[in-house]
Amino acid sequence: MQKSGNRMSLIVFMLVVFELTQVYCSAIPAGEIKQRVHEKSLSNEEHEVRGEHNNDYDHDAFLGHEDAETFDQLSPEESKKRLASIVDKIDKNKDGEITEQELKERIQYVQHRYIVTDTDRMWRDHDPDSDNTLSWESYQKRTFGYNDEPVEGSPTFEYATMIKRDRRRWLNADKNQDGVLNKEEFTDFLHPEEAEHMRSIVVDETLEDIDKDGDGYISIQEYIDDIWGDDEDDEDEADDDKGEPEWVRSEREQFANFRDKNHDGKLDREEIEEWIIPEDYDHSSAEAAHLIQSSDENG
Questions:
Q1: Cα dist. 118→59, 64, 189 in Å?
Q2: Where does the secretion signal sit in this chain (predicted)?
Q3: DSSP SS3 for 112
Q4: Does the pTM exceed 0.85?
């Protein structure tokens, strides 16, 4: 069956996805990759690694993170059977082809399923009160082991920064300001990038991580320092007098030409938000288009 524009045959699509499930390893250990842009929970993996598209991201976006881990344990034959069942469900009109829209809907389904599943699991773990609400004191004790204030000398002092950040998230997620979170509010607490009223919190946390001089902005050097660990592998890739690999130079250009809108050499809060939670970019549509394109290149 022929592929055209925004559709592809089931056979070709299954072969492309099967390849993703078999090549599930990054060139860089996960701990060395910084996740900043919030990809609407499509994957815990970086979309790009050192300027290259990351197959692990495609793997998670299509299967879901937990199912992706399950596939890692299956034999190639079992993987093919499981994939055939998934692909058949994606082809809703049963015409033997996968359209970009059908693929987008699959990715959105995986995204929503992850958020619901993650919230359900965490909600059960924290054992909410009989009225189906969760208090801050209960959350703090369950998460950090204590519910006293993190003052110097207290058992929670080593967690002071994390407790402060979680408390700020909590207060913003508490829409009705009753001091406790219901399950919907707890979802916003766990996944702030999904809620409009939580965007400022995501920006705050990003600034705290990257803004080392505390001036309320992210300079070009702070931006580069955050994404580039300057490790030995990168030194091997370095090919200019600054000792920077090509992908780092590309990030400098991205910062100057696209992220720094007013060209003042730094990112303000508005520019940071547009970087990490872009409003005019549909991640599920982009990933669907990418997978379709991959089928054209591999089919």
A1: 18, 12, 12
A2: 1-25
A3: helix
A4: no
Query: Per mean pLDDT, which range of 37-46, 219-228, 258-267 is the poorest?
Result: 37-46
Q: How far apart are CA 113 and CA 29, in angstroms?
A: 27
Q: If pLDDT is split at 50, 70 and 90, which confidence band does 222 have?
A: very high
Torsion angle defined by CA atoms of residues 111, 115, 121 and 126, in that order, rounded to the nearest 10 degrees: 160
DSSP 148: S
Is the separation of the CB atoms in 9 and 1 below 8 Å? yes
What gap in Å lies between CA 258 and CA 276, rounded to an integer?
13
Distance CA 124, CA 132 (A): 11
pLDDT given at position 198: 96
Nearest to 157 by CA among 145, 168, 169, 171: 145
> In sequence order, what are the beta bridge partners of 134?
181
